[in-house]
Structures are given as structure tokens and as C-alpha cells.
Amino acid sequence: MTRTARWIRNGGISTLVFLIPTLLVFGLFSWWPIARGLVLAFQQTNLVEPAQWVGFGNFRKVLADPLLLTAVRNTAWFALLALVFGYPAPLALAVFVRELRRGRALFSVLAYLPVVLPPVVAILLWRVFYDASDDGLFNTLARGIGLGPFQWLQDAHSAMPSIVLEATWANAGSTMIIYLAALSGVRTDLYEAAEIDGASIWRRVVHVTLPQLRTILMITLLLQIIGTFQVFTEPFLFTGGGPANATTTILMLLYNYAFINGDYGGATALSVLLALFLGLLSLLYFRLTRRWGTT
After folding, report:
1. Can you list the pairs that 75-81 forms with residues at least 24 positions away whose Cβ atoms lie under 8 Å?
2. Spatial distance between the Cα atoms of 70 and 201, rounded to a whole number of angstroms
């Protein structure tokens, strides 16, 4: 019996019949847009008139745009603030919840609740909190300690930190769950030995928790860096990129190219450059996870 006949007898045709629709749908909605985008990056088009081949003209135009440097700087500033404030926050929440003797489930739910809230609803809610008038919630709290009022989203210096604060609040819960799962795998005898030796909670965290979570901490660090370079929703809904382009990120600039200026070739060229950068970070992520998986 030939290999083909054996394949047909073992149900190869029926398998192929079920597989082809899945491949067609996947190719239509995944691979075709990628291939079309790569072609579009080398064309000048508004998607209405016939496209003109411009080669690397779109890439040269994007790289020469002075707003690109501003967008890269703002995105890097957002990433730095998110790492300084948003990276340790989930770990602190996870350690706090784990140290609780009672009410652990309640605090876990409360910490995770912002993740369940739709991002648009959360941002609109925080826009009310950031009201620049004296009656705004945060200005009222600041006035209670003798500070303010502040122009939270209207000032170029405070707009990005204000956005990062909301993003940290909204996303800390999901990462906290990852840390809680990792903490459940830490050997309890290490904590018991540390408590017997009279170690404080800070020493237990530094000398027991952090060494045991080294791998997961590096993984979440890389994932957060990749995620922060794709930030769009928060600056778009909070400030629209203002004031004075102080919160215009790379994806905000891409949006402006495509839907404000109608320059789909430039937008696609910028997306290709961003994809290459994120691809390098993803490659680093996979190499590190593979190395840690074998050690």
C-alpha cells in the first residue's frame, strides 16, 4: 500500500476537509493583512485612488518627521514611568495579599476589580477624577493637605505621569494574579525558617521571595516593556496626544498618519518599523525564557 493510499485510509481527506476552512479564515484575517501591509508600506495611497509605488520613500518620510522623535521620546518616557511605578506595584500587592492571615480572597478580588472594568469606562472615570477645577476629586484631596490645584492633564509636565498612574491602577491586578500563582510555588519551609530566625517581612521579601521569583520577574519585565511601546488607548482618550504633543506616542502618531492625514503608506511604514523593534524584543524574550527553562 502506497503512502498516499495509507493516508487516505487513515482519514486524511476528512482531516483536510476540516482543516481547509480554518486555514482559509486564518489566512484571510491574519496573513493577508500582514502581506498587504508590507506591500502598502512601499506605496503612496489613500485607499481610493490607484496606489503609486514609492519604494522606501515612506520610510524616509517617517524617519525624517520631527514628530517621530517626539513620539519615541514620549513612548520611552511612558515606559520608564510604567517600569518605575507600574512594575513593582503588582509584586507589592501580591506579597501583601499573601501575607494576609484573613480576608485574602476579598483583597484579591478588590485588587483585580479594575481589570474587569472596561478600559474606556475606567479612563472616562479617571478623567472626572482629574478635573482641573477646585472641585475635582484629586484637587480636593490635594487641597486637604495644602497642595494644588493641579492641571493634571492640561500641563505638559504632569500629563504623562497622570496617564501612567491610571494605567498602573488598571493593569496591576492582572500581573498580581501571575505573581500570586508564582508565590504559591515558593517553598513554605523557606518562609518558616526565615520567621524562626526573626526576619522581618522586608527581609523575607528580599532574601526569599525575590530570588524565587527571578525568572517570572524578568519575563513580566520584558512583557511590560513590549506592552508599553504599544500604548494608545490611554493617551488617545485622556489627552488626544496633547498638550503640545506631550503625550503623543508612537501608535498615536501612526493613528494620525492614517486617519487624520490619510497617509496610509506612511502609517504602514511606521507600523513595520515598530513591528521590527517589537520583534527584536520578542526574540529576546523567547531566548531568555528558553534559557531559563533549561536551567
Report:
1. 75/228, 75/229, 75/231, 75/249, 75/250, 77/160, 78/160, 78/163, 78/164, 78/228, 78/231, 78/235, 78/249, 79/225, 79/228, 79/229, 81/160, 81/161, 81/164
2. 43
Cβ atoms < 10 Å from Cβ of 238? 23
Domain ranges of the chain: 56-293
CB atoms within 10 A of CB 292: 13
Reduced 3-state DSSP string for 29-86:
HHHHHHHHHHHHCCEECCCCCCCEECCCHHHHHHHHCHHHHHHHHHHHHHHHHHHHHH
Q: Which three cell numbers stand for residue 130?
A: 482629574
Q: Which residues pair with 44 in a beta bridge?
A: 52
Q: What is the pLDDT of residues 133-188, one digit of tens each?
A: 888 899 999 988 888 789 999 999 999 999 999 999 999 988 999 888 888 877 77
Query: What mean pLDDT do residues 7-16 have?
Result: 68
Between CA 219 and CA 293 the distance in angstroms is 12
Is residue 149 reached through a cis peptide bond, with omega within 30 degrees of 0 on the bond before it? yes
Q: String of b and e for 190-209 (b: at least 16 CB within 10 Å)? A: ebeebeeeebeeeebbeebb
Neighbour tally for 142: CB within 10 Å: 16
Cα 15 from Cα 169, distance rounded (Å): 47
Fold of 56-293: MetI-like fold (1.10.3720)
Amino acid occupying residue 182: A
